[in-house]
Structure formats: structure tokens, C-alpha cells
Amino acid sequence: MNAQHSSAKSEINLEQERSRYDIYKQELLNEDFPELKQWMKDKPIDAFTGASIPQSTSNKLQEMVSDGMKNIALSAIGLRLRRVETDCFWVLSGKELHFLSTNTEGDLDEHIIFDTFRIAAASLQYSGVLKLQLGIYSQAAEEYLPKVHLITFNIDGSSLSLEIHDRVNYRPGPADMLDMKKQLATRAKYQVVGEKLVDILQSRFSNLKTS
Asked: How many whole angstroms separate alpha carbon 167 and alpha carbon 147?
């Protein structure tokens, strides 16, 4: 298995794969995630990737709910975000960021839009490998875990931090489990598409550029 993995991995040149971003994005939207086009309705999808809610944010929102959540604006977002444990996505459309969460059936659960003004007042920082999953995987598998940027919004004086993944979440199906070449090719495609969101976002909002 290790030899098969090494052989399949050696055939993938990520830099070459990145040159196919536009093709891969359309493939994923048409074949793997057509629901995103449905959920976004007539809005363009410039980029999309995986998302998650940091444990610290989830805890903070829980505390605020327990305390009556006096910030009405944050309450509107927070009451929805604090219970998300299913797949989530970011979609960049023009100068809007859409946070989409799904339910256990894979259907759209919540759709939260951060407009130009929210994003222009936000900050972005690199946070490394997605920490919640580190205990689940072996060290050897860490390279396939999403790396995340933390975007922090100012919601009427209160901060709200959410995670932007550098790849779309990939779970190999039964047919892929024994096909290492297909797994690695799909992972590369999902990374090429997902990592582009932060690049495009930073090109549109100078306040989100990181050192």
C-alpha cells in the first residue's frame, strides 16, 4: 500500500494541477457539488472551499446564548452557527462571502452572507492545520488535512471568527478506497480549487492580506 501511495503521489505535480483551476472549478461545480449552484441561485461563484467553526467560537457563542446574547446582530448569526457539526462551505461571489452549512442529510441548513462592509472590517490570519481533526489521523496523514485561515468579523463591536480551509472536504467513497491514484488525483483537484479562495479574497480586500 505504501509503495502504491508513493507511486501514485509521484505522478501528481501540484504546480501543473494549479494551472487547471478554472477547469477543475467547473468540474466540481457540475459533478461533485452541483448543490452549491442551486443554493447560490443566480449569483456567480468566483471561488469556493471548505469551512468550519473553531471550537473557541462555538464555546463563545454557547456562553453568549446562556447569557441572553445581548448583541442582536451577533445573535442572528450565532444562534445558527453554534450547532454546526456537518459539512460547511465558503463561497466567494463578487465582494460577498457566503457561509453555507448543511444538515445531516447533506441539504442546505443555513446560508449566512457577509457583505462588502463586513469583509472590509474583517481580519485574516493563518492558523495551520485544522486542529479539531489532529487526534483522528496519524502523523503520516497530516499532509491531507486542511490548513486553515481564520477570518474574524466585527459584528457591532463583538468578534466572530470562522475558519477557511485551503481545500474542499474530501471523503473517499467505497469505489475510491482501493484506487490510490484516483484518491490522490481527487485530493489534488480539491486542493487546487479550495486554496484559490483566499488568494482571490485577498486580491479584492487589501485588509485581509497577511504578512
From this structure: 8
Tell me the pTM.
0.83
Per residue in 29-59, pLDDT (tens digit) is: 999 999 999 999 989 999 999 998 887 766 7
Nearest residue to 144 via CA among 132, 134, 156, 154: 134
For residue 160 the three cell numbers come to 466572530
For helices 2-10 and 180-204, give the axis angle rounded to 10 degrees. Answer: 50
Beta bridge partners, 159, equal 154
